[in-house]
C-alpha cells in the first residue's frame, strides 16, 4: 500500500506509534511576550540535507529568532507531538522545490527543511526535550531522490568509451544519523 506521497507502507523497520496532538495542522509561532525568561533548554536539530540529528541548546530568554535561524525559515510553524514535545518546522517549506522531505510517524504530510524538536512543559511552552536522541531519530524518515546514471558504450574506430544517456531516479528512505 502506498500513501499520498509515494511512501510504501512497509518501511523495512519496526516503528513505534506516536500520538500527535489533536490539532495536526501547524500553527505559526508567536513572539514571546513573557516577563520571565525561560531557562536554557536542550533540543534536537534534524538536518535532512545532511541526514543527521544532533543536540543543540536553546538560549534562555526569547528564543523565537534563534529557532528561526536553526530551522532556517522566516515563518516557523509548531506541531505538538504527544504531550511532551514540540516540533518546529518551516511553515512554507513545501512550496519551493525540494531535495528532501522528512516523514514524521503519524503525521499526514511530509515536512520540509530543518526540524527542531524540543520538550514541552506543563504550560505548553518549550522546555528541554525529555526523550533520548535515538528515540527521537526513530520517529522520522528522511526521503531523498538519488539519481542513477544509465550509460551507453561508445565504439568509434579504435576508441572505446561511455556516456550517460539518461538519469533514473530512486527514492531513498533512512532514519537520521545521530551525531553525538
TrEMBL record:
Region (Disordered): 1-40
Compositionally biased region (Polar residues): 1-13
Protein name: Uncharacterized protein
Organism of origin: Rhizobium miluonense
